[in-house]
Amino acid sequence: MNKPISTINRILTALYCLGFLAFLSIPVLQMQFDLIPVKPMEEFRKLATFPIITLSRVQNDYRGVVKKFEAWFDDNFGLRNILIRIKNQIDYSLFSVTENVWVGKNGQLFLKLYLKTTVYNASIGVTPDFQKNNAEWLKLDRGLKKKEIRLVVLEVPLPHTIYPELLPAAAPKPPKILRMHHFRDFLKANDVLYVDIEEILRANKDKPLYPKADIHWSDIGACYGARELVNTFEKVEFGLKNLWSHEFQFTGYGPLNFRGPATRFMPLLLDVGQRLPQINKNWQLEVGKKNGRKMEFSVCPMARKPSFTKSLLDLSDIGEEVKTTPSTKDISRKKPRFH
Fold first, then answer.
1. Angle at 168 between CA 163 and CA 172, to 5 degrees
2. What 3-state DSSP class applies to 101?
3. Where are the domains of the chain?
4. Which of helix, strand or coil describes residue 194?
5. What is the structure's pLDDT at 268?
6. Could you give phi then psi for residue 293, rounded to 5 degrees?
7. Which of 55, 114, 205, 287 is most buried by a 10 A CB count?
8. Angle at 31 between CA 28 and CA 32, to 5 degrees
């Protein structure tokens, strides 16, 4: 009776050992043959390379060789990418958090590094390095003014500055006074032209000013920035007020094919596609005709057409009036000094 049981135990033990060896060989086979195709991750760093191993190097620096080998293995062993993606997918789908990204309300993504930096910089306030940086900006402005060039600074707030209420409960909250506010006050106090769009974005935060997976603003946010930039030019150069005053029309979302920078910091097993906010291009104005050709310009940088300033230069050459809304005033023939 004992012999059959002993034989079965040996068979089971052998199968267990073979299975364990087969399991251990999977990463090696994956490294060599890429059995499970997985999209490479964007890690924004150079992965460790296989170290040069010689007898003399092992004798003289054994620990260093072992350390470099471990670093190479950690970065390159088979199944690494898929295991990281599975882990991130579980964190994202079940717990709404990943190692590098906060998942906020309505699916808005916030980069942890940017939020941490914002909070830290606000906590230390105005430092000698910050003052040195401000002095460099002032030096640049004064140097450009000597060449009759006007420096214009437009600072784009990050999403967590405009939408702090969308941050998850566990995320640190940015204070009301940030380093960008100290920078803004310094430039304004020293007569540097600063285009302040923070309050304009806050007043229109009911619109999708940022894609959910991006730290950069959407077409809608960019158009608000462009409008304020143009109006600032007009006020300073021509004494006009709110030349570009119409409201932008949010028309919905585009196709599910956008993958913003935030998703690159949280590689998932299943890609998270985003729909970009769309806007009606109702800002295009008819300028007239030049050499028998009808001209149009757009004051939104997303339209890939001649800029507003260039159109003013064209107008100064052909001497025709702008055909636009009744709120538009006559434009001076003085050429802008902005570069």
1. 80
2. strand
3. 1-35, 87-318
4. strand
5. 85
6. -110, 130
7. 287
8. 90
